[in-house]
Amino acid sequence: MLRFIRTHLALKVFLSYVIVILVGILVLATATSLSVPAAFDRHMAGMSAMMSGNNMTMPVVGNSQAVETDFFNEYQTSVTEALSLAAAVALIAATLASFLISRQIVGPVQRMMILSHRIAEGEYEERLKISGHLHSNQLDELDQLALTFNQMADKLEKTESMRRQLIGDVTHELRTPLAGIKGYMEGLMDGVLPATPETYQRVHSEAERLQRLVNDLQELSRVEAGSYHLKFVSVSPVALIETVTSHLNRQFEEKEIILEKKLDAELPYVFVDKDRILQVITNLVGNALQYTPTGGRVVITAAQEKSEILFSIKDTGIGISPDHLPFIFNRFYRTDQSRARLSGGSGIGLTIALALVKAHRGRIWVESAGEGKGSSFHFTLPLVTKHN
Ligand SMILES: Nc1ncnc2c1ncn2[C@@H]1O[C@H](COP(=O)(O)OP(=O)(O)OP(=O)(O)O)[C@@H](O)[C@H]1O
Ligand SMILES: [Mg+2]
Questions:
Q1: 216 is in which domain, residue-wise?
Q2: Cα(205) to centroid of ligand 1, in Å?
Q3: Which of 253, 364, 376, 382 can pair with 314 through a Cys bridge, CB separation 3.0 to 4.6 Å?
Q4: What is the tens place of the pLDDT at every residue in 158-184?
Q5: Structural domain tally of the chain?
Q6: What predicted TM-score, i.e. pTM, was given to this entire model?
């Protein structure tokens, strides 16, 4: 019962009114039982003194009308006096109750107003205090509003910090190729570097890196914002993998890495955006190719697991240490910044893969026994389709 009252603001306001009314009734009752007789006695005593002063001992019959009127007047005055006292006490009780209640309601609303102004000005740190117990469901409507307000502030703060982080990351990523191009051009202008096709080739490859980065960023922002349409079609998981491997086969042969496929030809079809899932598989197989040294092996499997298709890309490559594993899907994250820079990777491929798999209601994760021990990337796609 107490919890019910505590969690309902309207009930609290209603109860405060009831309390004020009860106080009024109580005061009135006390007044009638204590104050009215006392006041009446006092007035009666005054009246009889007046009468004895005038040598009017007992009222005579002819005078009884006047005495009755006096009697009534005195009674009325004493009731009015008692009622005035009761009204004063009830007023004080009402003022006190409304002060307490309004402090409970207006206080949080005012704090919310101040805080929303601060947030609008870019100060995201402060939060509203919540008076109820957060985890015991003892929050009234105002507490719940404060909780939602705090959650909104959390989200805004996170978005803002992500925005800042993104700007910082992008600036950092752009700086390296730009500095390269500038350095080569200065070398050419000063005559330190010879104006040979090799020098121009270096400038060109830095510009290409910039272009790739800009394209990746554009793709990332589109995918993360969800501003693209998925064109769902029914497609065989085997066909998806075959498409990717037929494109990358030559590169695997050139690097002398064995590419193995373990696919169940009877796998049910998946209902997905074909191009987007091809992009995911290409990113993962491309990484396996990139981060596996010559002589290694990459195995691609696809199998049905309950109501999903599980895709796995396992390699015998450089592996990922446990320190890096939790961050591997973060944008711009590379286990070895300098090596990745040389190989041209921008650390966006996995972030895009994550967003695309999520958009298909799938899951994506990585496993690795540690550096030099190979890695396995897995992702699932839900089976919501029929056999075609
Ligand atoms: N199969 C793998 N084996 C070892 N490390 C990997 C593997 N795949 C990814 N990584 C690590 O994760 C990082 C992020 O991969 P991601 O594909 O997002 O970026 P990238 O390959 O560096 O660049 P790009 O955006 O061009 O793909 C890589 O830089 C690499 O350090
Ligand atoms: Mg990659």
A1: 145-225
A2: 20
A3: 376
A4: 888 878 888 888 888 888 889 999 999
A5: 3
A6: 0.65
